C-alpha cells in the first residue's frame, strides 16, 4: 500500500494520453491504480483538458549511469493488463526523460525489447525505433501456422462488415489492419470488437481501420517528411486491446498500418503518414533496420494523486463462556456479518 501522495505527469502523443509515474516512488498495486485513475468517467482530470482518465499508466525507472540514458517502461492499461509495447507511450517517455536529464537520446527497455528514441530540437517532436514488423504467425501471434493476409472479416468473426479484409502483423503487440474507402463514418467499436476477440488471435488484437487520403501520392522517397512531400497518407482509427475502445491515436497501430500498406502494395516507398483522430504521425519502414515512428508529444499536466486508504473490519472470536460482541469499523450496518470473523483488511483508493 502507498501511504503518501503519488506524483504524476500527464502526457499525450497525438491524443494517446498517459499518466507517467516514477516507479521508485510507487509501492502500491499498479493494476488497481491504472483501473481507477484511467477511467474515462471518474479518473484523473488534467488541468488543461476536459477529458478524464487516460489510455494507460507508464511506470518508469531511469538508469542515468548508462550511455545513452536508459529507462525501463512498464505500461499498465485501463483494464489492469500490461502491454509489451506502445509507440506513442514510448515517445512520451523519451520526452519525460529529456525534460528531467537534458538527454536527446534515450534507450527505452520494454517487454518487446529495447527501443532507441531521439528527442528532436523541434520542441515536442520525438522519434522512436519500433523494431521489425512481422507477419509471421509466431510473432503476431496467431493460432495456426499460416499468415493472415487480406482475410475477409466474416471469416474471422460475426461482424457488421464481413467484406472488409484484414491482415495481421506484430509490431511488439498484435494488430489487425483493414483498409476501407471511408473510415470516418464507421462504427469502429461495433466492427472491431469481434475481430479483437477472434479465435485466430489467442492473445487478442488491436484492430485498425484505415482509408487512403486522395492525392497523397505513392512515392515517399523524399528525404524530409514535410507536408509538401507526396507521402502516401492514411486516415487511421484504432480499437485498442486493454483500453477496449477506440483511442485518439495508436503508435503501434500506425506502424502496423504502414507495414500492411507496404505488404499489400498500397505504397512503394518506405515512408507513410497516418492521420489518427488525434493528429499526425510519420512511419518509416526501411528494407533494413527497424521501423521508426515520429510525431508530437505534449505534456498536459503535473500533479499528485491521493494515497491509498484502508478500511479494516475487526471481529474477535469470543472466548468460551463469554459473549463479546462483533465490532465493525467504517462498515455499514447492513453489511456486518452475523457471526464472529477474524481481522481482515482491504485497500481502497482515496478520492
CATH class call of the largest domain: Alpha Beta
In CATH terms, what is the architecture of the largest domain? Roll
| Average residue pLDDT | 86
Q: Largest sheet, described in full?
A: 18 strands, mixed
- CA-CA gap between termini: 15 Å
Radius of gyration in whole Å, from Cα? Answer: 23 Å
Give an overview in words.
By secondary structure, the chain is of the alpha+beta class. The protein is built from 5 helices and 20 strands. The strands form 2 sheets. The chain has an 18-stranded mixed beta sheet that branches. A two-stranded antiparallel sheet has the order 19-20.
Brief descriptors of the model:
18-stranded mixed sheet, 351 residues, Diaminopimelate Epimerase, Chain A, domain 1, two-stranded antiparallel ribbon, alpha+beta, 20 strands, disordered C terminus
Structure in a nutshell:
The protein is of the alpha+beta class and 351 residues long. The chain has helices at 30-37, 87-101, 153-156, 188-196, 251-263; strands spanning 6-13, 16-22, 57-63, 69-76, 82-83, 105-110, 113-119, 125-129, 151-152, 165-170, 174-179, 206-212, 233-240, 245-247, 271-275, 281-284, 292-296, 298-305, 308-313, 344-349. The chain contains 5 helices and 20 strands.
Amino acid at each position: 500500500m502507498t501511504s503518501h501522495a503519488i506524483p504524476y505527469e500527464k502526457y499525450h502523443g497525438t491524443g494517446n494520453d498517459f499518466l507517467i509515474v516514477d516507479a521508485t516512488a510507487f509501492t502500491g498495486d499498479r493494476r488497481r491504480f491504472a483501473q481507477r485513475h484511467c477511467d474515462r468517467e471518474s479518473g484523473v482530470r488534467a488541468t488543461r483538458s476536459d477529458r478524464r482518465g487516460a489510455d494507460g499508466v507508464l511506470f518508469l525507472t531511469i538508469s542515468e549511469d548508462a550511455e545513452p540514458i536508459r529507462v525501463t517502461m512498464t505500461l499498465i492499461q485501463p483494464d489492469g493488463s500490461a502491454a509489451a509495447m506502445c509507440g506513442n507511450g514510448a515517445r512520451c517517455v523519451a520526452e519525460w526523460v529529456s525534460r528531467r536529464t537534458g538527454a536527446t537520446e534515450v534507450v527505452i527497455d520494454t517487454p518487446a525489447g529495447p527501443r532507441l528514441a531521439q528527442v528532436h530540437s523541434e520542441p515536442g517532436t520525438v522519434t522512436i525505433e519500433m523494431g521489425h514488423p512481422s507477419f509471421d504467425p509466431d510473432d503476431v501471434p496467431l493460432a495456426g501456422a499460416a499468415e493472415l493476409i487480406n482475410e475477409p472479416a466474416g471469416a474471422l468473426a460475426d461482424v457488421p462488415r464481413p467484406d472488409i479484409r484484414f491482415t495481421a502483423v506484430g509490431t511488439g503487440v498484435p494488430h489487425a489492419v483493414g483498409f476501407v474507402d471511408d473510415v470516418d463514418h464507421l462504427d469502429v467499436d461495433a466492427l472491431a470488437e469481434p475481430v479483437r476477440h477472434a479465435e485466430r488471435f489467442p492473445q487478442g488484437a488491436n484492430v485498425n481501420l484505415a482509408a487512403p487520403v486522395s492525392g497523397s501520392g505513392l512515392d515517399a522517397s523524399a528525404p524530409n517528411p514535410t507536408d509538401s512531400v507526396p507521402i502516401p497518407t492514411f486516415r487511421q482509427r484504432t480499437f485498442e486491446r486493454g483500453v477496449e475502445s477506440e483511442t485518439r491515436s495508436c503508435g503501434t497501430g500506425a506502424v502496423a498500418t504502414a507495414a500492411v500498406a507496404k505488404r499489400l502494395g498500397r505504397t512503394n516507398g518506405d515512408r507513410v503518414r497516418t492521420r489518427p483522430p488525434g493528429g499526425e504521425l510519420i512511419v518509416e519502414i526501411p528494407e533494413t533496420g527497424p521501423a521508426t515512428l515520429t510525431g508530437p508529444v505534449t505534456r498536459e499536466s503535473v500533479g499528485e494523486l491521493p494515497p491509498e486508504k484502508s478500511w479494516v473490519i475487526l471481529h474477535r472470536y469470543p472466548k468460551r463462556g463469554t459473549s463479546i460482541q462483533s465490532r465493525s469499523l467504517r462498515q455499514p450496518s447492513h453489511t456486518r456479518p452475523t457471526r464472529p470473523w477474524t481481522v481482515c483488511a482491504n485497500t481502497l483508493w482515496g478520492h
